[in-house]
Amino acid sequence: MKNPNDSFLRGRLRSFKFALRGMWLLMTTEDSIKAQLFIAVLATILGFYFNISNIEWMFQFIVIGLVLVAEALNTAIEKIADFVHPEYHKKIGFIKDIAAGAPSFAAFTSLIIAGFIYIPKIALLF
Ligand SMILES: Nc1ncnc2c1ncn2[C@@H]1O[C@H](COP(=O)(O)OP(=O)(O)OP(=O)(O)O)[C@@H](O)[C@H]1O
Fold first, then answer.
1. pTM summary value
2. Looking at ligand 1, which residue's alpha carbon is closest to its atom 26?
């Protein structure tokens, strides 16, 4: 909630504090985010193991960010849906299904990027 007595800088700092709290809540309470963070750590270890290039690191971090952002927004939509209509409703089901499509698009994209980065490197091992 905006405090009308806040200066511009104070208002921005307050928003930043809430945003950090949101990241902390997502990382500590949401299993889907925890799972994606675990995969991100594995991908980072893989990146060091295969000594991937700067460009490959950039793509890897972009898709990690994309998946986390999509997962966070999907979680927020699920929470709103559960809050406004906790009981079963066809439309809530539809809204949740299409919201879940967002992290799925991001996950497919990340799999394609992972394929481009790692398949040639893994193929060299055989
Ligand atoms: N209130 C509801 N009305 C109708 N269908 C629902 C409702 N709640 C959930 N669903 C259906 O169940 C699916 C899973 O919903 P849920 O909220 O459990 O999400 P989830 O993907 O299991 O999320 P998470 O594991 O992050 O909690 C939805 O995509 C939707 O199809």
1. 0.89
2. 32
Domain boundaries, the chain: 30-124
Ligand 1 mean position, distance from CA 101 (Å): 12
Give the position, in ligand 1's atom list, of the atom nearest the Cα of 30. Answer: 26
pLDDT in tens, 24-81: 999 999 999 999 999 999 999 999 999 999 999 999 999 999 999 999 999 999 999 9
Q: List for the chain the helix, strand, coil content (%; round to 5).
A: 85, 0, 15
Residue 41 Cα to ligand 1 middle (Å): 27
- Residue 79's SS3 state is helix
The response to whether 56 counts as a known ligand-binding position is no
**71: annotated active-site residue:** yes
The third-level CATH classification (topology) of the domain covering 30-124 is: Helix Hairpins (1.10.287)
